[in-house]
Structures are given as C-alpha cells and as structure tokens.
C-alpha cells in the first residue's frame, strides 16, 4: 500500500509540474485568460466547495457558460492541487458520441495536452485513453455498460452526468442506477449538469441535493415569426376562416401588397411560407414541387430567401439554421450550393453540423471565416445545447426536430420528426445572442409556437415501452415494473404491463419475464421488436433481401405518395405493384423496380412516374445496408455468400416471415357476396386504409390479414396488410416453441370459434390437414 501511495504521489507531482509549465507559457496564459472569461469560472470556488460538502450536486447554467468544458477541469485541477491528481478518476457522460469526442479534444487542448494523456474519451467502437487518463468523456451508453460489469464503479471518484435537461432515455436510466449505487459508495461524487432550469425536479429526486446556478449573460435577440418574416416580402399573412378546394379549413390568407424583391424568388418563398403556415404539405399542385414533396421539410425556398437577404443586406455574423434532420440538411445544402450568392465560396462558407460528422468538419465550425465571407451552418438540434458556435448572430429555426428513439446500446437514430418544445425554441433563439445582439427567424407562425409544449416529454415517457423493457432485461436490472417505478418520471403501470404482455406473446420474454433467446437477439437490433423478429427469421430462412426491404420500408416514411389532388392516379400507380394481396410485397416490387432504374440513373424518374418518394427509396436503400451489417455482426448472415437469399423468390415464405413479425396484429377476412369484411378480436369490425392494395380488391383468397399498425380515427383502420393462410398463422403466428404448440392451436381455435360458424373440431381438422401438407412440402 505504501509503495502504491508513493507512486501516486510522485505521479501527482509530475502532473502538477506539467500543468504549471503550460500555464506559464504564452499560449497557456492566453487560454487561461479565455477560460477565466467564461461565466462558469466566476463560480469555480463555490462549485468546488459544494461538491466537497455534498455527495450529489446539480449545476445549471445557460448553454455556452462553460459547464461541459470547465467543470470537469475544475475538479481535476483541484485534485492535482491537493496532490490527489493521480488518484482521481472522473467520468463525464455525454448523450451523444460526437459531443464526447469533440469536448474531450477541446479540454485536452485547453490543457495544452494531446488527447489520451490526462483527458480521454470512449464511445462505442472507438476511444482514446491512456494510463494517465484521469478525466474520461464517454457516452451515457458506455457508462451503463460499465455498470453492468462493475456494479460499484470501483476506483471512480466522480461521475458527471451532462445535459440531463434533455431527459434522454439513457440519462434517466443511468440516474436510477446511480441513485441506488450512492449509498454503497459514500465517497463517490455525483454531479448533474443541465442547461435550462428544471433543476428542482432533479434536486428532489436526489433528496434535496443542492443546486448551483451559473448566471450568464446573453444579448437581446430580436424574434421574428413567420408573419413578420413574410412582411419583408411585401405579402401579409393573416388568419382566415376560408375553406379551401379540398373542403379543409385554410388557416391563412395571403394579402398581396407590392413586392420589393425579385418576383420569382419571392413567389417560391411565399409558397413555402403558406405551406408551413397551413401545414398542408400535399397541397402544392405544380410539378416541380413534387421534388420537395416532403412533409417534414419546411420552406427550403423560404430559407434560401432569408439567407440571401442576410448575405446581401445584413451586418457580419455567422448564421445557424436549425433543420429537422440529416436528410433535410443534405437536400438543402445541395440546393444552396447551386445558388448564385449562397453557393459562391468567396462569399459564403457553407457548413453542416450533425451527429455523424467527421472531426475535421467539426473543427471548421468553430473557426472564423475569412473577411467578407459569411459562415452558414446547417445544423440539427445538436447545436441547440451541446455544441456552441460562438460567432452566431442570426438563427433560423424550422421548428422541428427528429426525436431520438431508444438507443441504450445501439445509438440508432429514430425517424419521427416532431414539433419542438418552447424550451427548445428558446434555446435556439438564445444561440443568436452569444457575442452581440442577434436575430432569430422562426419559420412558423406565432400561433404554432403558442401550441408547443413547455418542455419536451422525457424520452422514457414517449418511446415504445417494448424496446425499453427488453433493454432493462438485457442490462439485468431486475423486474421491469419495479425498475421503472423508481424513475424520475415513471411510465403508466398499465402501459408497462401491456408492453410486458406483448413481449411474452411474441416470445421475447418467458412466463417469468426473463429474456428468451429471441429476446436476447432482439436487444441487439435497434428497430421495434416486431421488425427485429421479421429480420431475424428472414435471415434464418434465407429470404433476406425482400425482408430487408419490408423492414426498412416500415422504418421510414411511407414511400407511396398519395397527393390529395391525384389520389386516384396514385392509387392506380400503387396497384401495379399489387397481385400478392400484400402492401409489404408491393413495396418489395416497387423497391426492386427502383433499384433497376437507379442503376441507369433513372431512379428519380421512376419515382415520379410511380408516385414514390425518392427520398424514402434512398433511405430504404441505406437502411437495408445498415440492417444487413447488423445481422452480419450478430453472426446470422455470412456476407461472403448469397445463401441468405436462396428462398427470396418464394412469395409464400416471405408472407410467413411477415406474419411471424406482425403477429398478433391479425384480423380475419369474412367474405360476403360482393366483398369482404375484416374483424379483429379486440375491435370487432375494422377497415383498410384506402391506399392499401387490399382495399382495391373485392375478394381476398386467404382467411387472414396480418397488419403493421392500427389507427383509431372514427373507426379502426389498418395500415399495410398482408394476406396469409391458416397454416402460416398456425406455424408462424405466436411462439414457435414446442411446449406452446398446443396452447397455440387452442388459441387459434379460439379465434376460429370467435369468427366462424362451423364447429371448432372441424376447423382443427382442416388446419391439421393443411399443416401436414405444409410440413411435407
Ligand atoms: P456549456 O457546456 O455550458 O454549454 P461549454 O463548456 O461547452 O459550455 O463551452 C464553453 C465555451 O467554450 C463556449 O462558449 C465556446 O466559446 C468554447 N468552446 C467550447 N468548445 C469549443 C471548441 N471545440 N472550439 C472552440 N471553442 C469552444
Ligand atoms: Mg455543455
């Protein structure tokens, strides 16, 4: 023990000498000067003193005040000062891998070191950490995994959980686990850091832990909503009660006044504005508009128009544009690059900022452009709180963000764009006033803003509980409902019970709520369990390609477009792909056609002719590749052979695999003279969405439809269905384990009894016959 202590002491002295030498160098002095101007620096002593007296401390302060880069450093420095430097082990978690990497690099730079010396990082599959690393930035997922193997976090002295205001799933998860750990490790310090003030909630969760607030300073920001932005075009947007051509209420009326700028430019900007104001994304009728026929992208022309105005008329200062997601950023970038002013590299430095950018791209964001060149950064909500670009003066906010789905182990993106909260809009606006008074253009009307929620719902309350429950089990955190009841905000008990029940029905959990082998595999796939199931069986039964398309297709926005004014044409276009009584198989055919056309660079035209979304096709293509890679990683697919596609032509087998995934989403088909009706056990009669290929049929030669989604409007509607036979339901619906087969037959009998007149015994016999045939074939 004495020897170890001596070594630690010597190393600590060395660390102290190195830091002193750096701080006395001219660069070190300049860096210290910069750091000491950050608001966090004023609170350094207060923060250190509260941490020394309490096990849990909550620190809040405006974005950019220096929480992430300074506070872990304060702790490290004070440990080094007190000759405990070599004994301390600080872990600071970040919600995203990109921030873990960029922040660690910045902190090492501020300390005049290389990454991997006293400061390091670790994210999934990557890291930089040395023997002398005492401050480690990592993703929350990495710390969760470490806790799995090392329940007491042996040797760790400080845990800092950053960005807790985001209320990401992993962070909420981690807090439950850490709260239980604290009594077992009384000397461990926990520091929670948050941007906006919801600190009381966290304080009361940790038995009244003290809150330190770093007061910051931001300059005033002039705020323009869509109405005011439009006035600059010479048009005026006023609320109206008119009814439009489609019988829907138009919320807005445009009053034309004398336009000041070039007409064509204004016309398309205004068109975009109406679109965002009405949120009738499909109401544009011109052909060109199909190209930006993307319900989630708001006003590209409007953005272009505003950017152009800023570049031509406004004072210097960088522009930050908040976009919905990566697809929109890349499409907008393409559009801007073709613009005479905005695409001119002598006038504009056009950059992007998103979760998967390379680190060279990251550096450019922070650099100052040359004189006379305006920096424009197209960003996702990552620039809202975790990355601060100092010279921003103008902010454009499209008002939407992609909400992240559950990603404890996979860091997989989710694909649902939603309106942001007022708190987020406030954050975005604040980005404009960092260095001088700024301006913020919200690209939506004031009344839309008024309808935003105050805060975004925590992820734990908005993501599908099924995946969450599987993750709790895979992290071996005990009973699902007990675990969730200890969360900062727990999901409803009934919702948890439903999720657990569902997981049992699909065979991911056994009767004792333990992960089955299937469940174990599902935790390795980032999509909903039902889609994961489909993918696994597609791989096992060697019909992977079509199943990859189905699963990718169900993960993106519906690629079949149905513009209101061309509904019939669009439905007719989709019906060309039908023939198998399956929307899923129609998608497979459409994708295969697209793939062939795309090779000859005709993919776009193909989409245009067939009312398909080009963007969705591209996304499906990318997702297919990603999913296949995951299956290869798990070891289910051998990428060197084509054996995974031996049976890909067999439509009935594909039907079976689809059934395996979608069960218990099943309804019976009951024919009468002219057509058929559909019934599910829970809802009674249900209807098909009008764009389903099965909705155009008068007869379906199968007794069952499996479906992906049920939507309750006035009646219950089914979206995306596939017709399947009795034997397929019997073999591929529900659990495949032997012990359950009898139960399963009984259950199927129950269904039959429920829906059909003839006796159950007869039915059983006919099923058994069919089953025998099936097995023999
Ligand atoms: P907070 O976590 O409170 O939002 P940070 O600690 O991330 O703030 O950042 C504090 C300041 O440090 C920022 O305002 C910015 O000036 C500067 N900064 C942070 N990261 C970088 C970087 N990678 N390059 C240059 N400056 C940076
Ligand atoms: Mg931060």
From TrEMBL:
Domain Helicase ATP-binding: 48-215
Reactions listed under catalytic activity: ATP + H2O = ADP + phosphate + H(+)
EC number(s) given by UniProt: 3.6.4.13
One Gene Ontology term of the molecular function aspect: RNA binding
Residue ranges constituting the Helicase C-terminal domain according to the UniProt record: 302-476
Assigned keywords, A-Z: ATP-binding, Helicase, Hydrolase, Nucleotide-binding, RNA-binding
A cellular-component GO term for this protein: nucleus
Family: Belongs to the DExH box helicase family.
Protein name, entry field: RNA helicase
Lineage of origin: Eukaryota, Viridiplantae, Streptophyta, Embryophyta, Tracheophyta
Range within the parent protein: 237 to 1013 of 1167
